[in-house]
Write a structure and sequence with these properties.
Number of helices of chain C: 9
Organism (chains A, D): Idiomarina seosinensis
GO cellular component, one term (chains A, D): membrane
Number of strands of chain C: 11
Largest sheet of chain C: 6 strands, mixed
Number of strands of chain A: 21
Distance between the termini of chain C: 44 Å
Helix content of chain C: 25-40%
Order of helices and strands of chain A: EEEHEEEEHHHHEHEHEEHEEEEEEEEHEE
Shape of chain C: globular
Strand order of the largest sheet of chain A: 7-8-9-3-10-11
Largest interface: A-D, 76 and 76 residues
CATH class of the largest domain in chain A: Alpha Beta
Keywords (chains A, D): ATP-binding, Cell inner membrane, Cell membrane, Membrane, Molybdenum, Nucleotide-binding, Translocase, Transport
Radius of gyration of chain C: 18 Å
Oligomer: heteropentamer
CATH architecture of the largest domain in chain A: 3-Layer(aba) Sandwich
Protein name (chains A, D): Molybdenum ABC transporter ATP-binding protein
Largest sheet of chain A: 6 strands, mixed
Order of helices and strands of chain C: EHEHEHEEHEHHEHEEEHHE
GO molecular function, one term (chains A, D): ATP binding
Bound molecules: adenosine-5'-triphosphate, molybdate ion, magnesium ion
Number of helices of chain A: 9
Strand order of the largest sheet of chain C: 2-1-3-10-4-11
Shape of chain A: globular
Chains: A alpha+beta (353), B mainly alpha (229), C alpha/beta (231)
C-alpha cells in the first residue's frame, strides 16, 4: 500500500495530489502530455528535490518532513521515459547492475534467463548501448528494472518504441509476473489498450492534480474521453468450461458468450472483456444468418452525446453491467430506440484480459 | 648518472606520485561540490583554487616558506605540538606541489562532473545503488577522461615545477632535490651535457607514461557516434 | 659527518674543487645548495638547515648578521672578477669603444636589483657615462650563470658576467675583457658559519680550510682574486 | 523522387536495400525493432559514415562513390527517435534554428505561428528543454523539423510519447500539410493506425532488407501480420454529395455507404476507408432491425488461416476491391459459407482518411 | 607603483591575453581532432603536447632560446628571410608561453569535445547547419565549461610563469619584463614590501577576473538535474 500526499513546484507547474495506491495491483496513470505523470513517479522514487508532503509505503515512511529514505533504499525500480542505459557498460552489465547477489537471487521472482528470453536480449548481451536500436535499448531498460527484483515497479511509458508484437508479448508476460508475485505496478501510458490490458486501477491526472480515480471499470468512461472513443469493460466469469470448436463459454450475468480460447491462465477468476462502443451494434431482435454470434439482451438506459454529431452513445445495462454502443442518430430513429426498451447488442470483443 | 641523480629520480617519482594521488583525493570531493552544488561560494572557491597559479612559483614558494617554516602560522603550530615544521622537508614540498597543481586537478574534474548524465545516476539509485556504488560504477567510468587529465596534468606539472620546490625545499640532495631542480642545477653549472641527458631521460620517461595512459584511454567506450539513433 | 653549504652561483667551480680536496683529506661529505644569494639568505632566515653560507653580496650577509644568524665572523675569500664576455672572437682591449662595440648587440647582464655582478656592471657603465647608450641593449637574467647561458646559446652577443662562471675552456683572452672596477669591494666574496650549523666544529674547519694560503692559486684560477688587484 | 541503393555494415548487422521512394507521397517504413529503419533514415540523411552505394534525390546525386553531398545541403529534416533538443537553447531558439531567413519564410509552406499553434508550444517558448516533459520535448522536435521547411521529411517514430489527442491532431494536420505542399515524407512507425492514416506507400523491412513494398492497399495484408490483426483498406469516392443526418454518402463501387462527415477537405478525391477484419460480420442476407447500416454485397473469394485456431479470415470481393472478415469457424459452418457464395458484409469503419 | 611597474602590468595583460587567445585558436582544432578522430597518432600527439610541462621552465627557456635565437633553427630561418630572430622579443615570450601552457588548453577542450552530444550535432546538420554554424551554435555553448577552463588555466598559468619568459625574454622593461619577473626580482632583492604589494595586486586582479568568469559561467544552463524525466 502506497500512500502519497505531495506537493511540488516547478516553475509555473504545480504537482499536488493525495492518493492511496492499491497494493498488489497495477495502477495506470493516465493523462495528457505534461500533466505531471513522470514527475509523480519521480517523486515517489525520491528523485525530485524540494518535494513536500508525505510518501508512505507499507507503514514505512519514505518521505516526510523529518525523514527521507534514500531512493536506493526504497526497493523500487523505475523505467524512465528514456532508456538511460549505462553507456560505459555492456548490456549484460546493465542488466546485472541492480540484481541481488546470486545466493539471494535463487528465491527471486524474476530469473535472469527468463527475463532475457522474455525481452529477446540474447543477441546483444556483449554490446554497448550505443550499438542498439531504440527499441532494443528500451527492452534492456525494462529488463534491467525487472531484474532488480523491485517491491514496487514504476513504469513511465515503457512500451514506447516497441513494435506491436514485442509489446503484446511483454505486456502479457508482465501481467503474468505481476499476478504471480502480486507485484504492485504504477504504469504511465498514453495508450488505452495498454491501460486496459494491464491496469486494475486507473488514476487520471490533469495539470498536476488528480482528476479522478477508481477501478478500471469505473474509469472506463473517463478513458473514453480520449480519442479512441467510448468503450466498456465487462466482467465475465468462466462458464461450465464447455469448449467447442476452439471457443470457450463465459458467463456474462445470466447470458453465455462464446469467445476464442486465450493463452491466459485458465484459473477460475473472472476476466475483463474490453469492448469498444464502435464495435457494438444494436438490433431490435436477435439476428439470424450472421456471423455475429455474441448477441446479448440488454436494456437501454440512456443516451449520451458522442464526439461526432451524427452519432450517439447508447448506454445499455446487461445484467448489472454497463455496455456502451456507438450508433448513428439515423439508426436510432430507424429502429426507434428509446430508454427502457430491450435490444440485442452484438459485438466482437476487442480484448480479453 | 651518479647516485645523487638516482636519488633525485626516486624523489621526483615519489613527489609526482604522491602529489597526483593526494590531489585526486582532495580534488574529487571539491570538484563534486563545485559541479553539483549551486552555492554562492562556488565561484569564489573556484577562483581561489586557481590563484596559486598566478604568482611566480618562487614567490609562492616564499610565502609557503614563511607559513610552513618555524615562525609561520602552520610551522609554529606544528612545532608547538612537538612536531617538525615543514620547510625544507619532503612533506613541505609535497604540500607546495599539491597547492600549486590543485587547479589542474580540480578544474577538469569539475567540468567532467558537470557533464554526468543525471539520468544514469537516477536509474542507478532506483536500482539500489548507494552513493559510493554510483560513484564507482557510473561517475568514475563516465569521467575517466576527466580523471586522466587531472592526473596527467598534475603529474607532469609536478615533474617540471621547481620554483616552489626550490624555494620551499632548499634543494637538499636526497631530501628535497628533485629531478627538475637537479637539471636546473646542472644547467646552471653549465653542465649542459648532464642537463641534457637528464632532460632527455625525463622527457622519454614522461612520454612513455603519457603515451601509455592516453593509449589506454583510447579504448573505445562505445562509440558516442551512434547514440544518436 | 656531512656539511650542507649554501653558496652563490659564482662560487660554484671554486667550491666544487675545494670540497673535493676537503673530502679527500678529512673524510667528510660536503653537499652544496647553489642559488642566488638573496634566495639563500631568505631561506636561512626561514630556518634552512645550512651550515655555512658563501655569498657574493655583502648586503645579504649583513641581513643575516642583523638577524643574529651568524655563528662567527664574516670571512672574505677574495674579490670577484667582472668580465665582458663575447660569444665570438672579439679582441677586446681597454681601448675598445664599448658604445660602438655594443651597438645593435644584445648584452646579457644579471639583474642589478639583486645580483651583485649585475650591480657592478651597471655601476661600471654609469661610471663610464655610457649606461644610457647601452641600456637599451641589455637583457637581464636571474643571475650571472644565466647571463652566461644567454651568451652561450648565441642569443646574446655579449654578457657582463663573473669570470668564475665562465667555463675554463672558454676563458680565452680573445673572447673576454676583464673590467677593472673602481671599487672592488662591490664584488667581495665572503662566507660565514651559520648558527644553524649542526656541527659547528666541522663548519669552522671547512671555513679555515678554504682560507688556507695554498688555495690562493686555485681561487685565482677559478676567477676569485684573493688579493687586491693593483693595476 | 528518392532513389536509394545502399549497403551498410554495423557489427553483425547489415543494411542492404534498393528502393525508389515515391515523390510527393508518404511512405511508411514498417518493421520489427532492430530491422534497420532508423539506420535507413540516417543513411538517407547522410549521417552514417561508411555507407556504400548511391542515394539520389530528384536527379541530384546525394551519395555515390565519387561524391557525397553534406547532410546540411540536402534540404531534409529528420525527427529522430529521441528529441535531441539543443539543451543550451530555449524552445524558441530550438524552433528557429532551422528556419530560413524571414524574407524567404513568407513564401514558405509552414508558418511559425501555425506550427506553434499546431503543436501547442506557446506556453514553453522561453523554457529550456530540460524543463519540458517527454511529450512536450517530442512536440518541439517535430515543430523544429517542420519549420526548417524541408524538401523531404524523415520521421522516426515521431508520435512516441504523445497522448492520443495530440497525436490525432498532429497526424491530421501533418496529412493536410503534406497534401497541400506535396511534401514527401518517410515515416517510421510501429503503429498500424499511424501508417494507415498517413501513408500512401508502405515499405516493410526485415533484418536490414526489404521484405516488400507497395501501395498501402497492396501492403495491407503484410501489415496484418502484426498483432492488431488483419485489416483492409477500401477506396471510396464521394457519392452524389447527399448529406443526411450528418452522414455523407460515398460510393464503394456500385454500392453506397453512409459515413459520418469528417473534417477532411471535401475535395473530389477518393478516400481510404480502413476496416479491421474483426469489425466485419457476415450474413447470408441483408439484416433488418439493426444499427449496422453499412451492409455491402460481397462475394467470398477464399479463406485464410487466422492467428487463432477457432477463427478464419474470409477474403471477400466487393466490386474490384478486397475486404477481409474475421469470423469463427463455428459461424462459417453454421452459415455454410463457401467460396463463390454471395454474402452481406456489415462493418463500422475504423477510420476514414 | 612606478612607471616600470605599470609597463609590466600592461605587458603582462597583453601576454596573458594574446597567449590565451592564440591558445584557444590553436588548441580548438587540435583538441577537436584528438577528440573526434581515432588515429594511432592521437596518443603520441597528446603526450607530446603535455611534454613541455615536465621540463623545468628555465631549461625549457634555455632550449627555446637556442632554437629561436639567431643561431637556432627557427631564428636562423627567420633571419635568412630578412626577419628578426625571436630571442629577447615579445613574440618570443609569446611563443614560449603558448608552448608551455598548451596542454592546459588542449586537454580540457579535448575532453569537452568528447562529451558533445552527437545527436544534437546530427540534428543541427539535418536542419541545414554547416560545420561552422554547428560549431558556433552547438559545440561552443555545450563546451562553454571546457573553453572556460582552457582559457582561465592558460591565462593564470601565463601570469604566473616566469622561468621560460625570463630566460627567453631577458626581462627587458616594456618589452619582455612581465609582472611575475618583476615580483620575482623584488623578492630576490629582499624588497619584500614591493613584492608583496605587486603580488597582492596581481592576486586581487586575478581573483576578480576569475570570479567574474566563474560567476558568469554559473548561470543556469538548463538544470541538468531535470533532463532525466
Ligand atoms: N523547471 C520547470 N519549470 C517549469 N515547468 C516545468 C519544469 N519542469 C517541469 N515542468 C513542467 O512540469 C510538467 C510535468 O512534467 P512531467 O514530465 O511530469 O509530465 P508528464 O505528465 O510525464 O508528460 P509526458 O506525458 O509528456 O511525459 C510539464 O508541463 C512541464 O512543462
Ligand atoms: N555498432 C553496432 N554493432 C552491431 N550492431 C549494431 C550496431 N549499431 C547498430 N546495430 C544494429 O543495427 C540494427 C538496426 O538498428 P536501427 O536503429 O536501425 O533499428 P530500428 O529498425 O530503428 O529499430 P527500432 O524500431 O528499435 O528503433 C539493430 O539490430 C542494431 O542492433
Ligand atoms: O651572486 Mo650572483 O650569481 O651575481 O646572483
Ligand atoms: Mg513523462
Ligand atoms: Mg529506430
Amino acid at each position: 500500500m502506497l500512500h502519497v500526499d505531495i506537493e511540488l513546484q516547478r516553475g509555473d507547474f504545480r504537482l499536488q495530489l493525495a492518493h492511496q495506491f492499491a497494493a498488489h495491483k497495477v495502477t495506470a496513470i493516465f493523462g495528457p502530455s505534461g500533466c505531471g505523470k513522470s514527475t509523480l513517479l519521480r517523486s515517489i522514487a525520491g528523485l525530485e528535490p524540494g518535494l513536500r508532503g508525505t510518501v508512505c509505503w507499507q507503514n514505512n515512511i519514505w518521505h516526510a518532513q523529518e525523514r527521507i529514505v534514500k531512493t536506493e533504499q526504497r526497493g523500487i525500480a523505475l523505467v524512465f521515459q528514456q532508456p538511460h542505459l549505462f553507456t560505459t557498460k555492456t548490456v549484460e552489465a546493465n542488466l546485472r547492475y541492480g540484481m541481488p547477489r546470486a545466493s539471494v537471487l535463487k528465491a527471486c521472482a524474476m530469473q535472469f534467463e527468463d527475463i532475457i528470453e522474455l525481452l529477446s536480449l540474447q543477441p546483444f548481451m556483449q554490446r554497448k548501448p550505443a550499438q542498439l536500436s531504440g527499441g532494443q535499448q528500451q527492452r534492456v531498460a525494462i529488463a534491467r528494472a525487472l531484474l532488480s527484483q523491485p517491491q514496487l515497479l514504476l513504469l513511465d511509458e515503457p512500451m514506447n518504441g516497441l513494435d506491436q508484437a514485442a509489446k503484446s508479448q511483454i505486456m502479457a508476460d508482465l501481467k503474468r509476473i505481476q499476478q504471480r508475485f502480486a507485484l504492485p505496478i504504477l504504469l504511465v501510458s498514453h495508450h488505452v489498450d495498454e491501460v486496459v490490458q494491464l491496469a486494475d486501477e486507473v488514476v487520471i491526472m490533469r495539470e498536476g492534480k488528480l482528476l479522478s480515480t477508481g477501478t478500471l471499470q469505473q474509469q472506463v468512461g473517463q478513458l473514453s474521453l480520449h480519442d479512441e472513443g467510448p468503450l466498456s469493460v465487462l466482467s465475465i466469469s468462466p462458464g461450465d468450461n464447455n469448449q467447442k470448436d476452439g471457443l470457450l463459454a463465459w458467463q456474462l450475468g445470466q447470458q453465455t458468450l462464446w469467445l476464442p480460447t486465450t493463452g491466459l491462465p485458465a484459473n477460475s477468476d473472472s476476466k475483463r472483456l474490453l469492448v469498444w462502443a464502435r464495435d457494438v451494434s444494436l438490433a431490435t431482435g436477435p439476428l439470424k444468418n450472421t456471423s455475429l454470434n455474441n448477441q446479448v439482451r440488454a436494456q437501454i438506459v440512456g443516451f449520451e452525446r458522442a464526439q461526432h454529431d451524427a452519432e450517439m452513445v447508447v448506454e445499455l445495462a446487461v445484467g448489472e453491467q454497463q455496455l456502451r454502443a456507438l450508433v448513428t442518430k439515423a439508426s436510432i430513429e430507424r429502429l426507434n430506440l428509446r430508454a427502457g426498451y430491450c435490444v440485442y447488442a452484438a459485438f466482437k470483443a476487442a480484448a480479453l484480459h | 648518472m651518479d647516485s645523487s641523480d638516482w636519488q633525485a629520480v626516486t624523489l621526483t617519482l615519489q613527489l609526482g606520485g604522491y602529489t597526483t594521488l593526494i590531489l585526486l583525493v582532495i580534488a574529487t570531493p571539491l570538484a563534486w561540490w563545485l559541479a553539483r552544488q549551486r552555492s554562492w561560494l562556488s565561484a569564489p572557491v573556484q577562483a581561489i583554487v586557481a590563484l596559486p597559479l598566478v604568482l611566480p612559483p618562487t614567490v609562492l614558494g616564499f610565502y609557503l616558506l614563511i607559513w610552513l617554516g618555524p615562525e609561520g602560522f602552520v610551522g609554529a603550530t606544528l612545532e608547538s605540538l612537538g612536531l617538525q615544521h615543514l620547510a625544507f622537508s619532503f612533506e613541505g614540498i609535497l604540500i607546495g606541489s599539491i597547492l600549486y597543481s590543485l587547479p589542474f586537478a580540480v578544474q577538469p574534474l569539475t567540468e567532467s562532473f558537470r557533464q554526468i548524465s543525471q539520468g544514469q545516476l537516477d536509474v542507478a539509485a532506483t536500482l539500489g545503488a548507494g552513493w559510493w556504488r554510483r560513484f564507482w560504477t557510473i561517475v568514475v567510468p563516465s569521467c575517466q577522461g576527466g580523471f586522466l587529465i587531472a592526473a596527467t596534468l598534475s603529474f607532469a606539472h609536478t615533474l617540471g615545477e621547481f620554483g616552489v620546490i626550490l624555494m620551499l625545499g632548499g634543494s637538499i640532495p636526497g631530501e628535497t632535490q628533485v629531478l627538475s631542480v637537479l637539471i636546473y642545477d646542472h644547467a646552471e653549472a653549465m653542465n649542459y651535457q648532464a642537463a641534457e641527458n637528464l632532460s632527455l631521460g625525463l622527457l622519454l620517461f614522461s612520454f612513455v607514461v603519457l603515451m601509455a595512459v592516453y593509449t589506454w584511454q583510447k579504448r573505445p567506450t562505445g562509440g558516442a557516434r551512434y547514440v544518436a539513433r | 659527518a656531512e656539511l650542507t653549504i649554501a653558496a652563490a652561483s659564482s662560487y660554484r667551480p671554486l667550491l666544487n674543487h675545494l670540497a673535493q680536496q676537503f673530502e679527500q683529506r678529512q673524510q667528510h661529505q660536503v653537499r652544496f645548495v647553489f642559488g642566488s644569494s638573496g634566495k639563500l639568505a631568505t631561506q636561512i632566515i626561514r630556518g634552512a638547515p645550512f651550515d655555512l653560507i658563501f655569498s657574493a653580496n655583502m648586503a645579504y650577509l649583513k641581513a643575516l648578521s642583523d638577524n643574529d644568524l651568524l655563528a662567527g665572523e664574516v670571512v672574505t675569500d677574495g674579490y670577484g672578477q667582472l668580465v665582458l664576455w663575447s660569444k665570438s672572437e672579439a679582441q677586446l682591449t681597454a681601448e675598445t669603444d664599448l658604445v660602438k662595440l655594443l651597438q645593435q648587440q644584445r648584452v646579457a647582464i644579471a639583474q642589478p636589483k639583486h645580483a651583485p655582478f649585475g650591480q657592478a656592471a651597471k655601476g661600471y657603465l654609469e661610471q663610464q657615462h655610457i649606461y644610457h647608450q647601452i641600456q637599451p641593449n641589455l637583457v637581464y637574467s636571474e643571475n650571472v650563470a644565466q647571463a652566461v647561458h644567454m651568451v652561450h646559446s648565441g642569443a646574446a652577443d655579449f654578457g657582463f658576467v663573473a669570470l668564475s662562471v665562465i667555463p675554463l675552456e672558454q676563458q680565452s683572452e680573445t673572447r673576454m675583457y676583464r673590467i677593472a672596477l673602481e671599487n672592488e669591494a662591490l664584488l667581495r666574496q665572503a662566507h660565514a658559519v651559520l648558527k644553524s650549523a649542526k656541527d659547528k666544529n666541522l663548519a669552522n674547519e671547512f671555513s679555515r680550510f678554504v682560507q688556507r694560503q695554498e688555495f690562493d692559486e686555485v681561487k685565482r684560477h677559478y676567477g676569485i682574486e684573493p688579493e687586491r688587484v693593483k693595476n
